[in-house]
Protein 1
Amino acid sequence: MMLEQTLSTLNQLKLFGMAKGLAERLKNPAHADLTHEEFVGMLVQDEKTDRDNRRLTRLLKNARLRQSASLEDVDYKHPRGLQKQVFQELANPRWITMGRNILFTGPTGIGKSWLACALGNFAARQGFTVLYLRAPRFFEVLHQSRADGSHLKLLGKIAKTNVIIVDDILLTPLGEAERSDMLEIIEDRHQSGATVLTSQLPTKHWHAAVGEPTIADALCDRLFHHAFKIELKGESIRKNKADEK
């Protein structure tokens, strides 16, 4: 009876990890000889682990990553110019805390989106907030926010997100509103938030694709400053895998 009351109180206090741990550990004969201090210490660790797991689940859900990818599964064997040393450096969260941008360029099917999602997964596992959107959808959301009056609120949310991933940007030249939004977003995030972009267009052509020279100067300067520029080359990985089947 006392145990049921204790479990009920723990759940009411939202100490779900401790409640689950208590029920399981009392059934384990190996824990019978633990001191009170050791037993309570384990329950506290159970609560921390449960909260960490729930936070990670929430971060990954909110990130909306397009693909299930991780840095541990990066393929360095496929000839595409991907340097293992660079990704070993990115396995340290300093690029996030320092607000460094990562720019993936290369042909379709070379793995840009997968690698970007792997970085997003890594960031979430480190406890950072992440948001993934394909560029067309990204600009559509921004356009809709102008119409419903939530534009400034959305820009504020994007500015506070630790890592944003915009996939397939500059497939077409930017329009006036898109240029303005991108400059505002990158300006807000400059050296305070990490931005990951993927594009089929080489970075040397980004200035022209942005369009208006003054905005292009400001945008490219902030994007390229202290950024990781990862240019991928070679045959499509998707095509090779299809051929192997």
Protein 2
Amino acid sequence: MNIPDCFDLSGKRLFITGGSRGLGREMALAIAQAGADVVLAGRDQASLEESAMDIRRIGRESFPLVADIGNPHDCEAACRQVLTEFGPIDILINNVGGRLINVPITEQSLDDWQKIMDLNVTSTFLCSKLIGGSMIERGLGGRIINIASISGIIANRGIGGRSYETSKAAIIQFTRTAAVDWAPSGVTVNAICPGGFMTAPNRNWARHTPEVIEEFERQIPMGRFGDPKKSGRWRSIWRAMLHAI
């Protein structure tokens, strides 16, 4: 088998949350270029349709699904719908997430804390449980990639909302435990911890609180944010997928 064949995902199907914008969109396009069909979940119908059309232009099937993955009830319903209407799923990318708030620990409400935990951690758990569980039942293996963050390893300075760092650290540990549990079934589970990228949420931070972005940039060794479009091939994902499916 030559190297390009190792990355061939023809006949496979991806389900990605938060797949219509930013890094999620670039990952979905890159995996479609490798031959997989893609089910995209997100809240915005217009961006979902746009990304789905771009995937179809590559020559792959794409199925947009409007769902609030940060709401546990909606997330579970979306996963069941995916399995019923678009399954089987071979690859799951738990990408949806965000910080959303910039408040000190002493001022963050319990509701806001739970909202971020549900968006980042509970969604990863539910999608892994249901989609990953279906992979185990099929007995043909599968691939789960959780998008954590460098913020799950370090403590950022100059910004509040520590529920974000906490949730991303939880995703990293959840990934480790799921990987141990599911490896005998041929379902591999990995996490990727991106640094700062100038996605739509960070552009929004830059408009409203530029000092936050400036502080982030000072903490980046290269002194600048990454560009999602220049990272569309996501070679770290390809390496994680190699020989996994």
Protein 3
Amino acid sequence: MIELGVHSPWLFATAVLVLNATPGVDMMLLLTRTLQHGVRVGLVAALGVCTGAVLHALGAAFGLAALLAASAAAFTVVKAVGAAYLLWLAVGMLREAARKGETVTAAVVREREPLPLSTAFRQGLLTNALNPKVALFFLALLPQFIDAQSAHKTPAFLALGGWFVLQSLVFLIVFVLAVAPLARWRPRLAVRRSLHGAGAALFAGLAARLALAER
């Protein structure tokens, strides 16, 4: 990576770790999907999240992040779409919380029914890809580890972006495997409804936060 003009790799790795460990919408999505549908679905959702990160890395390398930073209109459009998607997830959780007439056993069986892997992947992908703050984070973070005199800035962006994605994937896999044992817990229906309601409130709050975000 020296030939690309990339420096301070361990500092970069530390920054990525701090970002991954900071609770956010991606982590909450993986938590809910793993607890509701199991490790396999959680891992596929993690793969979707990292695929979204690939898109952000490519955007940073080829100028999309710069466009979002420079254009208020482009940022607003992406921000609005991302906020709407998070709100849609919140509404789904709220509907789960409001369901009536189920026994605890029926509710547990329904909730543990397999979520299509394609759906889990798509949810992870869209949750990450439709967050313009992630694109701006790439634009703000990656240049700090590339020499200003480097003659290979695009390959350097791609190299750091690839590192970011791989490190994030490892972290998210560990996270999914760590929280998976909690899925054995079988709370009462009232508790489950409270958890769904809290999840809906969290995603609605994240949607509002994204909608109000400044460039």
Protein 4
Amino acid sequence: MAVYAIGDLQGCYDPFRRLLDEIRFDPSKDTLWLVGDLVNRGPKSLKTLRFVRELDDSLIMVLGNHDLHLLALEAGVLRFGKRFGMMTKLLNAPDAADLCAWLRHRPLAHYDSKLDTLLVHAGTYPTWTVKKTLACAAEVETALRSSDYATLLGKMYGNEPSVWSESLTGYKRLRFIINCLTRMRFLTKQRHLALNFSGTPFAARKNLTPWFLYPDVAWGDTRIVFGHWAALGLTVLPHLVSLDTGCLWGRQLTAVRLDKKRPRVIQVEGQR
């Protein structure tokens, strides 16, 4: 039984299917980890989401920021604009509500104790242990799965608060957790989320640090698998796997086998 993690799909159905063929993925034996952002920007969001849902029994995925945009659009709390144009077909599909209901019940973080590996879309906060990350994710998951989920989806937008405090409550607390798990790339020296810069670490201002390079992180040696950061690209280290390799932009779609001492990297050409 193999465990493969794959980077951001963003509606790039054809490269996704080619990559599954390349790794000879067998849903009866293997497990697929997806870092989120299944939809938007690419040409086949509907087909991608339908196919991923069919893999449910062999699938582990976490929600990304673009998945949350879809849920907000479907709930009617986010204004439709040009940047969401590639999701028109999905939103008008007869099974859109069912697909979004399924998506709404996906987690924001997943931990495998045997692999000592945490799966998130963007990252986790330096002062959060794995247990704390899962607990914070669960707060958002509970709200997303409630009958009042649309209120959360409408209130999640914004960059404040930018720093974690246990005293945060209500939608401010949930917004910070969402931003941390689905949008974060850099932190300031004071641990504030710096959400307005998405470039490479080399191009960042001196006061910005990639979240995973912060000193004395609370998650210790647990391996973190994430996507979201196309400018960072593929990074495979003992305790870190970055998987967004710009498939949408014509670069590559990447899979990494996680259940081996030396993770195997497999890539196919991205969207054309």
